[in-house]
Amino acid sequence: MRRLLFLKLCIIFSGIAAVFLYSHAQKVIYTPHKVSEEMFVQIDNGMSLQKIAEMLREHKLIEHNYEFILYVKFNKLYPKFKAGEYLINNDISIAGLADLFSGGKAHLRKLTIPEGLTSREAMEIILNNEYLDGDFTPFKEGEILPETYTFTRNEMRQKLVNQAKEALNKILQQAWAERDADLPLKNKEEMLVLASIVEKETGIAEERPQVASVFINRLRKNMLLQTDPTVIYAITKGETDLNRPLLRKDLEIDSPYNTYKYEGLPPAPICNPGKDAIMAVAHPDKTPYLYFVASGTGGHNFAKTLEEHNQNVRKWKAITK
Predict the structure, then answer these.
(1) Residue from 46, 73, 41 nearest 58 by CA
(2) DSSP class of residue 92?
(3) Alpha-carbon distance 78 to 224, whole Å?
(4) What letter would DSSP give residue 207?
(5) How many CB atoms lie within 10 A of CB 68?
(6) What is the pLDDT of residues 225-276, one digit of tens each?
(7) Which residues in the chain belong to E strands, given as ranges?
(8) Is residue 230 within 8 Å of 259, Cβ to Cβ?
(9) Threshold 0.85, pTM exceeds
(10) Strands 84-88 and 39-43
(11) What is the number of other CB atoms lying within 10 angstroms of the CB of residue 176?
């Protein structure tokens, strides 16, 4: 009788202990740990569960390694962990950490290549980004699309460059397929060259279709394009900055990029134009304009005749004085 009572008590106390342990385990696993400041944790390929737990403890995201390890092993989550950089900016529990790593939602970093940069300038941005890895094959003007790209830490630079090239090809194909029917352009490569000139001539989005219309109108009339950015490129080849105003003698330089001297488009782009500039060339405004000059207030004044243009030039000179 006493033995039976003892067994019953053991069962009761075991049950109470089990409930207590389960409750404690639930509390340990699901109670969010306080995160006082934003931090990043990096899981590398082949990183052991023990190493991951040790890293989390060093970051004070868990108190004991074994609690995290036991939870992950019990739920068979470790094989699902994805390598990458993870942002921790909110209070998070052991279960939350395990779900984050097994879900593979690594933090995406951003790299922006502004519109109108030469390839030298764009390559410097890519090369100087500390979160990218590896070398890449140099690219020429007009081979990448200026855009903001996302990547994970330690991603290869060549992968991002390839992505930028694919983005440019996609936009260029789309623009050429949807272009206005009467454009005096032979192929999408010429469209890209003209877009690079438009990009360099104005940074105002609303003006790009107007600027494009001036060059389209000049091409139709077999007029010289007479655009300063091409002369600057003839001098610098995109390898340096000019760092001075253009001089009258510069307009006589013997180069296929000198649109004051040679008719038609330059042989290649003079920068990396953005989507808006490409689309502006594909769909230029219908205007009678053949000239434009800086207004002195950020934009440009457009003109149909040389006489009107000269008046605008005098206005610009008066403002700049």
Answers:
(1) 41
(2) B
(3) 66
(4) G
(5) 25
(6) 999 999 999 999 999 999 899 999 999 999 999 999 999 999 999 999 999 9
(7) 39-43, 84-88, 109-112, 132-133, 148-151, 155-156, 291-294, 300-303
(8) yes
(9) no
(10) antiparallel
(11) 19
